[in-house]
Structure formats: C-alpha cells, structure tokens
Amino acid sequence: MDVVGDRRFVEIPGDKLHELPPLMVRTGHNVRRLDKVVDMANDIVQSEELLAEAAALDWTDTHEADRRRMDLAINLVEQYMGFVTQWQWGDGILEWIRHCETQFQITSELRNVLRPDLWPHASRCSFVTLLSDKAVRPENIDLQRAVGMRLTFRQPPPIKCFSNQFLFYLNSTVASTAYSTWSHMAPDPVSSLPPERFTFQVVNM
C-alpha cells in the first residue's frame, strides 16, 4: 500500500497500464419542448407566489410585473437545465463504474482490489476519486453532486415536480447527502486507485 499525504492507495501487481471502459456521457438536455418547460416554470412562479402581488401593484409600468415573472421563470429553467446536466453526468458515471467493476472481476491483477474483506481495498466511490485524479473536470459539474443526483433520481423528473426552493437552494444539499451516504456504505478504510495505473476515454454523446 502506498501512502501519499493522508491518502492510501491500493497496491496493484505488476506495472501494466490498465485501460478501463470509456466513460460515456450524454451532453444534450434531451428536452424536446423548451416552451413547455418555460410554461411549467411560469406555473411555479404563479403558484408559489414568488412575486408579491403587493409589490407588483406598486409598479407604474403594467408590463413590469410580467417581465419580472418571466425573468423568474427563465431563472428556474436555467436551474433545472443545470440539474439535468448534473444528473446526466451522474448517470454516465454510475454506468461506467458498473462496467469497471466487471472488468476488475475478469482481470486477475485487479480481482481483489474491490474485496472489502481485504485491506487495503477500494470501493465504488474510489472510481469517482479516480476521475478527479485523472483531471476529469467538466465545466459547472461537481462529480460527487452529479453522482448524488443520479442516486436520488432514477430519471430526471419534469420541472413541474420541483419547488422553487429545491431548484434554488436544496438540490446541492440533497445530492451531497446522497453521495456521502453512498460513499460510506463500504467498510473503512477505503483506499484510492493509483491514477498512474489506469487510462480511459471520456466520450460525449
């Protein structure tokens, strides 16, 4: 076992560079009717009274309230699209981890790396750490939050299922809690996978 700073790395026999399956991520939002998403966001603005009627009555411009409501709706849509992107990355990462686990099982040098009854051992969250170690840093994506989103939702729900509080404030907390719980399911101590021993491609679909 190698120790670097406060991190432990599992020992892998030999000096072979192991090529892992490609990480395949859908980068498109797959939202067919953006106008419907905007309409549903408008419904959230109206139903949750994000714009106080008393304040709207004080505006001399009769169209100002409509503009403010539309601004709020567009902001909600942007938050929702960010949620979908995070979810898609999480979905791709979990699928990638499953493929990696299969490869570990059929590769003699890697077969014991994920066995929790042996120490040091890695776990499923070690693959997420490996992505960071290999400098997989997509723009505006937190890998742990992305996995947490996918753990929380099997499919991304339509925007009408969310409150404005979730989209504005709660989604990061929910995702972080889900990831933390998932990552601690393996018995401690969990070691990292040595990044210099692995290679893989990231494919944007």
Q: How would you characterize the overall build of this protein?
A:
The protein has 205 residues and is mostly helical. The protein has one domain (11-30, 81-204). It has helices at residues 34-47, 53-58, 64-106, 124-133, 143-152, 164-183; strands at 2-4, 7-9, 18-19, 23-25, 198-199, 202-204. The strands form 3 sheets. A two-stranded antiparallel ribbon has the order 1-2. Helix 1 (34-47) packs across helix 3, helix 3 (64-106) packs across helix 5 (143-152) and helix 3 (64-106) packs parallel to helix 6 (164-183). It is elongated, with a radius of gyration of 22 Å. It starts with a strand and ends with a strand.
- Shape category: elongated
Describe the main β-sheet briefly.
2 strands, antiparallel
Please state the structural category: mainly alpha
How many beta strands in the DSSP annotation? 6
Distance between the termini: 37 Å
Q: Could you say how many structural domains there are in total?
A: 1
- Could you give the order of the helices and strands? EEEEHHHHHHEE
- Helices, by number, come to 6
Tell me what portion of residues adopts beta-strand conformation.
5-15%
- Strands of the widest sheet, in order across it, are 1-2
Low-pLDDT windows of residues: none
What does the average pLDDT come to?
A: 87
**Rg, please?**
22 Å
- Helix share bin: 40-55%
